[in-house]
Amino acid sequence: MAHRITSLRSDERGTSVIELALAAPILAVLTIGIIDLSNGFSEKLRLEQAAQRAVEKVMNGRAILSMNTTGNTTTMGALKTEAASAAGVPDTNVTTDFWLECNGTRNSTYYTTCTNYARYMSVSITKTYTPFFNYKFHNRTANTYTLTGAATVRIQ
After folding, report:
1. Range of 102's domain?
2. Cα–Cα dist 29/132, whole Å
3. Predicted confidence (pLDDT) at residue 104 exceeds the cutoff of 60
4. d(CA 6, CA 109)
5. Hey, which residues does 94 pair with through a beta bridge?
6. Hey, how many other C-beta atoms are within 10 angstroms of the C-beta on 82?
7. How far apart are CA 115 and CA 110, in angstroms?
8. Do residues 132 and 38 lie in contact, with contact meaning Cβ atoms separated by under 8 Å?
9. CA nearest to 121, candidates 61, 54, 33
10. What are the Cα distances from residue 35, in Å, to 23, 28, 54, 75, 146?
11. pLDDT digit string (tens) for 108-144?
């Protein structure tokens, strides 16, 4: 009997299965976390690309050149609609902004003349993201994250 116990002590045939049983839950949690993190980054990138595409389409249509002193509501509406449809969000999740910088300082009015000026246009899209997997320590409904994608371009 003593010989049998000694032979079992030196037997290593099941150690890799035991090591896998100890490491598998840790690897599974890490994999699930990486999947959720990559899905969140992918969604943020999609929002940024949608904002950039909306700015490019408006710029290619030269709608920005037709802005007048009445407040450019047509251009802003077209920009919001384009960004919202590209991102798959409602128009209320899209924020547009036009501004003028005179000598490096943001001006309150868009149509002011100054010697050193630049006009800018920006689009910002927000969307809530809920992680795909439900963890025991993580409440999916309580932990939603707000993602924002933005693009800014100098017009003039």
Report:
1. 15-154
2. 13
3. yes
4. 89
5. 125
6. 21
7. 14
8. no
9. 54
10. 18, 11, 29, 39, 18
11. 776 777 778 888 888 899 999 888 776 666 555 567 8
145 in any annotated domain: yes
Instruction: Name residue 47's amino acid.
Output: L
- 5 falls within a domain: no
Q: Is residue 130 assigned to a domain?
A: yes
Residue 74 lies in a domain: yes
Q: Give the Cα separation of 81 and 84 in Å (integer).
A: 5
Q: Give me the amino acid identity at 91.
A: D
Distance of alpha carbon 56 from alpha carbon 38, whole angstroms: 27
What is the pTM assigned to this prediction?
Answer: 0.72
> Tokens standing for 106?
């943001």
Q: What is the CA radius of gyration of the chain?
A: 28
Number of folded domains that form the chain? 1
Helix (H) or strand (E) holding 77: helix 73-87
Using one digit for the tens of pLDDT, what is the confidence trace for 84-95? 888 889 888 998
Which residue from 54, 56, 78 is spatially nearest to 66, judged by alpha carbons?
78
Q: Which of 41, 37, 58 is nearest to 151 (CA)?
A: 58
CA-to-CA distance for 106 and 59, rounded, in angstroms? 21
Q: What angle do CA 78, 147, 145 make, to 5 degrees?
A: 140
